Sequence to fold (420 residues):
Amino acid sequence: MEPKNKSNELNRKNLTWLKEQSVDLKIGLLQNHLSICQIMINELLEEEVIERAGPRYCRQKPDNGRYSRWGYNPGSVKIGDQKLKIDVPRLFDNVDENNTPLQRYEEMKDLPEPTDQLIKGVLLGLSMRDYGGVIDHLGEGFGLSKSSVSRSFIERTEEKLHEFETRPIAHHKIIALFIDGKYLSKEQIIICLGVTLQGDKIPLCFIQAATENSEPIKDMFEGLKERGLDYSDGLLCVIDGSKGIRKAVEDSFGEKAIIQRCTWHKQENILKYLPEKHHEIVKRQYQHAINREKYEDAKAELVQLKTDLKSLNLSAARSLDEALEDILTLHKIGLNVEFGRSFSTTNCIENLNSQLKKYVGKVKNWNVSNERYRWIASALLEIERKMIKINNFGRLDEFQEAIKKEMNRRTLAIQISTKK
Fold:
């Protein structure tokens, strides 16, 4: 049974009216969830009107009678893909002598689309094959079939992938890049995270690759350039010990790339050569050196540590030696004290990878690469919304100036070398 003229009759009905109706009418309304939505919206709006203007015809008004009922305006709230027409109560402010909007109506206009809730649900490990058990979680149990849920998810994640891969980045002033690889369902995914001058962290791009080979990563960087990445003032590039990532950075950005090796990764690499009984003292020496304020002091202590390591394990000493200058990059350009916590390790992108695992870690196998890309892009866009700013973001103008100064020093050094 369909409620008669529901588009006209329900515009101002609330739950009190619904309770008074016959069982047949209630069942008819349940067959059309939009009618229930409309009644709930009317109820919420009326509650706000009562809070601000009091019950209809009541002489005792809240707030000394500041607000008065003043008829209705036509409005709408989007439910899924449909726009639901409603009559929005008007309130008149007798003090300011103008109409005042209802806060709840403004909030309803910004409700997330159910399809976005669906994406979150599936990404968090809710199987489309078990959608019947997921309906309550999503709050949209109105007879959607598994096939329609699957189609909706595919369509929406296709849109998310397109958005992620094509959104321009020229309007962002990117001052640093974090690049790292992660295995997801037996495949290597290389992710690039950018940090803006305002301190925002933005997942910029990712690729699927067999290994951390430089060629695919260079293609990834070329895509960033085409989308507007400006690196003319230099970029701090924070990486682990991957030779492929380093080569791709150097080939793509040349002298504009200032490389900071992850101090944590280097520490762990050194320790893997040593018996556990030596770990604590070596870690203490290493961290004391890294935490020194001046480059000269930090380097002197690391050189001493390298000498000590030679007697314990030559491979450990060589591991420290090959990265000694790169783990002190921030020291050399005077940024270690203010920004060492944020930029001396790959923690920023490691945290991103951990969040990504929460969204897609339960997936054991993707049938095709497009499916993998859709899921990862959708997850990264969702994670981006929750990422906090970099530490000391209010002083990133100093960071940028130090990078520019290093660029000028390098340019001058090249000019002098060329003249010789």
Summary: The first helix runs from residue 6 to 9. Strands lie at 67-79, 82-93, 98-100, 174-184, 187-196, 201-209, 235-239, 257-261.
